[in-house]
Amino acid sequence: MWTRPQPDECADYYHGYIRQVPDGDDLPRAALREMETLRSLLAGVSEAESSRGYAPGKWSIREVVGHVADVERIMSVRALRFARGDDTPLPGMEQDPYVAASGHGERSLGSLLDELETIRHATVSLMRSFDRAALDRRGEASGAGATVRAICYLTVGHAIHHRRVLEERYF
């Protein structure tokens, strides 16, 4: 049931995230495994370390984790609405204003990881609720069309992307 989205299932820029998801994976399982990988990566990070970016003006580790949680919530709403046949065009989101207004940098890393894990379990439950017909349904967000399948893959790929950024630039 979980087959990689075809090129025509979403805008080109989504495919950069979609390509992050390993081939042949059950997407809900991949999402849960990604959460475990992120927790493991951040297990030894102190609160002081988590409050800094890798360079001046870059998000802190806390802000990265909070950003992943915010985007996952937004993508889940998109997937739900598209799956239910809601054809109302949905607005986009600008990530920097979201992070600036979030307060993520003032929270503990542990609280942000707990919140993301709660969201991840809800996302996985939502994904598992979709049948093939729902995965093929389309909607519009940020001025571009996408299938539910593509939104689900994008969600997991986005999380993988940011975990890799943490690995490569923060550690």
Q: Domain count, please report it.
A: 1
- Amino-to-carboxy terminus distance: 36 Å
Strand content: under 5%
Overall body shape: globular
Low-confidence stretches: none
Spell the H/E element sequence: HHHHHHHEEH
Q: Would you kindly provide a written description of the structure presented here, covering whatever features stand out?
A:
There is one protein chain. Helix 1 (12-18) crosses helix 8 (148-170), helix 2 (27-42) runs antiparallel to helix 6 (109-129) and helix 2 (27-42) runs parallel beside helix 8. This protein has a single domain, classed as Up-down Bundle (Four Helix Bundle (Hemerythrin (Met), subunit A)). The protein has 171 residues and is mainly alpha-helical. The chain contains 8 helices and 2 strands, in the order αααααααββα. Strands 1-2 form a two-stranded antiparallel ribbon. Strand 1 and strand 2 (144-147) form a beta hairpin. 63% of the residues lie in helices and 5% in strands.
Could you give the topology of this structure?
Elements: H1 12-18, H2 27-42, H3 47-50, H4 61-83, H5 95-102, H6 109-129, H7 132-136, E1 138-141, E2 144-147, H8 148-170
Antiparallel strand pairs: 1-2
Helix pairs in contact: 1-8, 2-6, 2-8, 4-5, 4-6, 4-8
Give a brief outline of the structure.
The protein is mainly α.
